[in-house]
Amino acid sequence: MNIGEASKASKVSAKMIRYYEQTGLIPPASRTDSGYRAYTSSDIHRLHFIRNARDMGFSVAEISDLLSLWNDRSRHSAHVKRLAQEHILDLQRRMAAMQQMVDTLGTLVSHCAGDERPDCPILANLALPDEIPDEPDQRTGALQRRPGGAIP
């Protein structure tokens, strides 16, 4: 089947199929005489696996590890379980960081008059420097600053 049919069958866009091929998550498709990619039912099965893993939030690198385990019939399920448990912990950390962002933004919104005046605690808070300027790579996306708050 061609890439359009593979996309429809796997519910993975043609663009992502090409990306997964480029990154090595799926093997390079065979080519027809006219140069079109040709996919097998095995490729579609693998794309379903990848799509399901992506839907659970696994990264491309983690999916690569999962695919290696999936293809290794001598593997122990403990390896798969450990990888899934690590992913659960990562998801929980990300959820906590997102909840912190919601809480911080909610507090800022509650302190904003939302009127015609130019004063805005939301913008003022976003303009504040980080508390830990020596460690710029430590940010996770959540606002982890201003204990005691810089909220007016």
Give your account of this protein's structure.
The structure is a single chain. By secondary structure, this protein is an all-alpha fold. It has two domains: 3-58, Multidrug-efflux Transporter Regulator, Chain: A, Domain 2 (Orthogonal Bundle), CATH 1.10.1660; 77-138. Helix content is 56%, strand content 3%. The chain has six helices and two strands. A two-stranded antiparallel sheet has the order 1-2. Strand 1 and strand 2 (37-38) form a beta hairpin. The longest helix has 34 residues, at 77-110.
Throw out a few tags for this protein.
Multidrug-efflux Transporter Regulator, Chain: A, Domain 2, transcription regulation, mainly alpha, two-stranded antiparallel sheet, 6 helices, DNA-bd_dom_put_sf, disordered C terminus, 152 residues
Topology:
Elements lengths: L2 H8 L3 H10 L6 E2 L5 E2 L2 H15 L4 H12 L5 H34 L10 H6 L26
Antiparallel strand pairs: 1-2
